[in-house]
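Box 3.1 — From sequence to structure: Chemotaxis protein CheW
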Amino acid sequence: MTDALESLNGLIVPLAGQPLLLPNVAVAELVGYRLSQPANDGPAWFLGWILWRDQRVPLIDPEVLLGQPAAEPPQAPRSLVLNAVGGRAGSSFIAMRVRGIPRSKKIIRGEIDAAGSASEFVSQPVRMADEAETLLIPDLAAIEQALAQAGVLPAE
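Predicted structure (token representation):
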């Protein structure tokens, strides 16, 4: 097997509870937290809209979405803009409010293990030998579907 199949570059995204683990290719950009239009209605985890590169992008709170314990609002939040995976017309990106700067992590086959079962918005909790906490791999397609069901994103 080639190295490309043996490893993946990822990001560990800090949250108040368990951090997220995302592949680098899922992330478009990390930007300062600038909510351009707060949510007037919708689910509690939908915070509103940010303006990013002249595009209106929905912003979610992954801590609320994942049911993590309530925490103080982040001191210096950031918006992590993600590439949408659902293929909906007019919705190429979604954003998450995160607590700080994600850190790079090389994920090597054989050094990552399942650590529980999937849930509504989590594809897989995982453990890595050199990480103290269980990491959550979010189900980005399910998150986009929930945004569509809430009327935030266009239906397919």
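Summary of the box: The first strand starts at residue 7 and ends at 13.
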